[in-house]
Amino acid sequence: MASSVNGPQIRREKETVALMIALYCRKVHAGRERTDPRERVRDAAAPLCAECAELHRYAEQRLDRCRFGEGKTTCLACPVHCYATAQRDQIRRVMAFAGPRMLWRHPVFTLLHLLDGLKKGHSQ
Ligand code: SF4
Ligand SMILES: [Zn+2]
């Protein structure tokens, strides 16, 4: 059972995923309509498109319910990966695109995220 779903590691993962989706949407979905200003996430030049807004909500909801709590690795390195197949494919595309670019924009943050990904010891 999760020890906490609102500690620094979960918050960092939420921040990471928000930044990555924002970057991906800004670059890959540049021509899309952005209809909901509430979906603006930090560091995003524009609100998210509908598809990315939904993915962002989904990722936050997964983290709110993460069974590993503060003991978690990154979602990408998670042996369980609680995402449904469609969302898992989406988030992998986002991370493959945004991961290398994040290193330049947020080097310290990215390093911390990579260290989180090296954590082991999940039991199901
Ligand atoms: S993918 Fe793994 S680490 Fe991420 S929220 Fe789901 S169970 Fe937790
Ligand atoms: Zn988008």
Automatic annotation (TrEMBL):
InterPro entries: Uncharacterised_YgbA
Protein name: Nitrous oxide-stimulated promoter family protein
Gene source species: Paenibacillus mellifer
Biological classification of the source: Bacteria, Bacillati, Bacillota, Bacilli, Bacillales
